[in-house]
Every structure is written in C-alpha cells, then in structure tokens.
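Comment thread on ticket #2218

A.B. wrote:
> Attaching the input chain for the structure job we discussed in standup.
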Amino acid sequence: MYFLVFPFPGNSQAQDKKTVSLEDVFKNNTFSQKSVYGINWMKDGQYYSSLNRGLSGPIVVKINVATGEEAGVLIDGGKLGINFSSYSFNPDETKALIASDVESIYRRSSKAVFHVVDLKTGTAQKLMDGEKIMYATLSPDNDKVAFVKDNNLFVVELATNQVTQITTDGKWNHIINGAADWVYEEEFSMSKAFDWSRDGKKIAFIRFDETDVPEFNMQTWGKLYPEDYRFKYPKAGEKNSEVSIHVYDLSTKQTVKVDTGEEKDIYLPRIYWTNDNNTLAFLRLNRLQNQLDLFYANAQTGASRLILQEKSKTYVDLDYNDDLRFLEGNKGFIRTSEQDGFKHIYHHDNEGKLIRQITSGNWEVTNLVGVDEKNRKIYFISTEASPLERNLYVINLDGKNKKILTPEKGMTSVNMSKDFKYFIANHTSANSPLRVTLNEASGKLVKVLEENSELRSRLAGYRISPKEFFTFKTVDGTSLNAYMIKPPHFEEDKKYPVLMYVYGGPGSQNVTNSWGGTRDLWHHHLAAEGYIVVCVDNRGTGARGRDFKHVTYANLGKYETEDQIAGAKYLGTLPYVDASRIGIWGWSYGGYMSSLALMIGNDVFKSAIAVAPVTTWRYYDTIYTERYLQTPQLNAAGYDDYSPITHVNQLKGNYLLIHGTGDDNVHFQNAVDLVDALIKADKQFETMYYPNRNHGIYGGNTTWHLYSLMTDWIKRKL
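C.D. wrote:
> Ran it. Output below, let me know if you need it in another format.
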C-alpha cells in the first residue's frame, strides 16, 4: 500500500478560506472551466481555426500558429444572422458547413438546420429550405452535401439545389438508411452511418432493418393523457437489426449491396474507404463479439474478401480495434489491438499480413493520434508512465526511437495538425484544472491558449484537500488503484465516516490523475461536511491490460463487488475511519455496483445510493451486455446470480434508489422491478423518480435538486 499526494493549488489550512458549498458547485458555477472550442487545423498547417463567441454571435477565426494572433474572421454568425454551434470545412477550405438550432435525439444523434458558407464571398446557402436534417457532410469534390432525413439518405447539388433521394424505403421503427439504430449509437459510438469515397463519386452506407426488433414503450408525462414514446431497443438475447452495407454510385445512380457473408445475426459497426476509390473496407463482428473480421469490398460489384481476422476466448473489444489508418502508396494499414494482452499498434500490408508490431509492453496505447507517413512517425497517447496518467509519445514506423513529448504528470489529450508540425494539448491533473497549449511536434511550447487563471485564483481561496492516490490488495492479492479526499480540517485522531464512489464497469476508469469536474467538486463539498470520499477501480476496469479487464467475463458483478467490499474493509482498518459508517454511491453501472455492495456487503456498508442503476442485465441492450455475459440463453446464471433483484433479502442498511422515468438507456423498468422485489422482501428503503428525465437526469433545476437530495440523505443516513 502506498499513498501519493498531489497538492491542490493554493491548499492551506488558513481559517479565512472558504469551504466548497453546494451553491458553489451547482448554482454559481464557481468552479467552471474555460477551454478553447471548435478547433480545426487548416490544410497548410500554418493556421488553425477556432469557434468563438463574438459580440453579435458566433464567429470562426483564423489563427496564425507561429504568432498566436488572429489572422481574420472566416465565418461571422452575426453578419449571416445564423447562431450556429458547429462547423466543418471541405477539403480545399473554400466552403464550410455550419449547424444551427440543433436538436438532440439520443446520446450522439441530432438534427439541425444546416447552411453551406462560401468562405470567399461570406454568403450562406440554406439547405432544404431550413428543414432539420441529420449528419450533413460536404463531398470531397466540394459541390455536394449528403444527409439523412426521415430515415433516408439524400444528396443535394450545391450549384443547383437539386436533391437526389438515394433511398426510399426509410420508415420510423422499421428501416434506417445512413444513420445508426439506437443500440449501435449507444454501444458502438457511432451515429452517422455513411461515408463519401475520396473522389466524391460514391457513398457507402449502412442500412438497418429493425422491423423485427422488439419495441420499448416509454411514457412521457405532462399532458392530460400521458403519451407513449416507442422505439426499437434490443434487450439481451432478443432480435437485433439486420444490417447490410450498400454503395451508391452518383454517376450511374445505381446502388450495389456488399457481400457481408451468409450469417445475418452479425454486427457491421464500421465502414472505411481505402485509398482506392473502388475499395471499401468494413468490420464484421459475430453476435457474441469474440470474432472480428476485416474485409475489403469491390465498390462496383459488392464482392468482398477477408483480409484479417481476430478471435478471443472472451471478446474482441471494438474500442481496442478501431484505430484503422490506410497508408498511401499501397503501404498497408495501421491498426490497434489488445491481442498480446495490452492495446498496441500494428502495421500490416494491404493483404493483412503482419509487417511488425510497432509498440509493445505492459502498458496500453489509449489513442492513435496520427500517422506521419512523410517522416515515417506515429503519434499516440499511452499509459506507459502509469495507468493513472496519459502522455503523448512519438515512435518511428519501424518501432524504434520512441520518445515522450508531454512528460507532465496528469492526463493529456491532443489535437494534431494535418502536417504533424504542431499539436494542441489539453492537460489536467487531479488537483489542477484544464490548461490548453499550442506545441511544436517536438513538444516545445509555442503558446498557452488557456490557463484558467481565474479559476485557479478562485480555488486558492478555498480550503480544499488534495486528492491522495493509494493502492491496496483485494481478496486474490491483486493490487487495486484508489484515491481519497479527506476533509480540509482533517485530524488524525478523529474518526470519520466514508463515502465510496464507484462506477466499476468493464474497461472504465475513475481513478486517474485528472481534474474530475462536477462530481469531484461535490465530493469536495462532502469532505468539507466531514466525510472522507474514496474511489476504487475494481478488477474489470481499464488501462491495466486485457487479463485485468476480462476477468469479469461471463460473470459481471462478482469480482467487482468483492473488490468494493474489500476496499471498504481495508478502509475500516485505518485509524481515522469509522468502520460503522461506510457508505457507497454510483450512477448507471455504478448504481448497479452500489446496490450489490450494500446487499452482499451488508456487514460492511451502512448506506448506499443507486442512481439510474441496471438491476438485471436481462433488461439491458444486446451489444453491451452480450459482449460481457454472452446471451441469457447461453449464460442464465451470469445474468441472475449477481442481479440486485436476486439479493434483496440481504438488504440491511439504508438504501436510496433514484431514476429518471424518461431513461432511454437504462430503463425505469429496472427501478420498478427492484422496488417490487424489495416490497415483496419486506425491505424498507427510500426512492426518488424524476419525470421524463433521461439517463443523465438533468435539465432546469434538476441537477441542483438531485445533488441536494443526495447530500441531505447522506447527512441523515451516513
């Protein structure tokens, strides 16, 4: 066991300093961070653009990399009379696509009013007479825009405003063309499901036939008669959408269906155009997600051939196989995989034959930033320094001369220029908010873009304890990472109650040396009220390799719960912890974990809060659940043995269950069935539902109400 303390800026025990209040966190925005938004690198590498808020509306400004000075306004929302919130350029940077009046649908999907801006004349062309459309994307040849409307795929010619409807069979809750269904969007992190070929002459798209997928019905409240909202949601073991890939040729106006194999119960989560305008690459996963195949398809005939295959005894994680980069000049492709036990970078030739493994070691490449083919270098983010850290590295394409470019402790993410001469780094640490810098590719600082000086100054006026990182061993001897926030007025000879915070799901990570945001600041408020806050990353979480992550396969809940209980028991041995007052809280998977911890660990935990928890994996979606548990038909025990519903008879402590009735992700049904089981078991508990709120439970006064409720409950019950 070790403790590592990172001092908080301005931390002091001075009596005149303030403690963090609920109002500071949730009403006054006392600790809100500034950032640099909407950054796009210009094609020549000497400039980048940034979306700012001007006096009369949003503006996109051009910034000189060398001097850091503005070199002109590219898009002026005030002059155009358009309050846009996002923008993108076409390849030759003569046009921009801007979106306004954006309407969110699910986690990643939205529709909006789109305009094409001529950057030379400063004029804007409204698409579809202002009708809201989805995923508008400029063609590489600059004269067309593709988009989705009413589940169909369209193309509009900018010169004539002529609209071509590529598909005609789109229908709500039946057929979707060019956009992902609910479960692909949520679990494969995709929403747009089409892509232009590099020459702008073809569009590849995915078609979802969700006709046979069971509907979920969710009531929305507020009117005299509540309304039903029905959408397709495949619960574990149920029917998925039947997916297919198609290529539309704009010159012939013909659509070709790609051969994806005879098996229909599959996933097709990614399509990529290679450097050959006639070759489309795609990934195919089997239903259990333990086999991943990479195919090449002929865009004219639809014929396909297998290029590469990866199998696993557990599952092949798409997030670890999604960094596919095709190299110019038929020099193959770069990809990532955790096939050797950790996520690393691999170079294959065009036919899929391995040329070399470029990175290796007992650490993970978390993000492939870019491949500089001209200088034969690869830039990537990794955990080599520590699972708690993220740093930018560069390595030669031959696997030699690996160098760290951002050695600062903490978490770094980067946005690299197209010519690989510069990068913008976003850096935080556990006790230091966001700092945005412009750097040369060598790592040399060019300019600080955002220091958050005002926030740092405000933080110096508060009594905030540093976050302390430590490790302990769980029941099987595995060392687990954790952090602790002590009260700012901490005294060694006093006994303090502890509130543990958990998520704990497969591949997740809460214990990192990063600025935590709102929930962390709420934890600092609780610390100011006399509670120690602790977070433990149990077995099954990320950044520590495949074996550590996959140990929970086919049996979610078992090892994670053991580890949280072991963490609480360890804390109970510390001289300043009141072992009779240990609580735990979590959201989503964390709510699932906090429920199990209180029930199975009823001799350790006094209280638990579960926000929007999964209470039985039988109610959750196919892609996520079956990846880790197989189907209920194959592994019923894996679904039932560690369902909180199964363990209601073990509840002894204080339990608060919170859920939004409009949760399209973890359905309110989870809370209803757990409540019913608790009633049958004659268990007393408290509950709160938030009408029409989704999985995030926010909007208007909601967040303030939720955290005020939880704060009060913790004071009463812990």
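A.B. wrote:
> Thanks. Noting for the ticket: The first strand starts at residue 3 and ends at 6.
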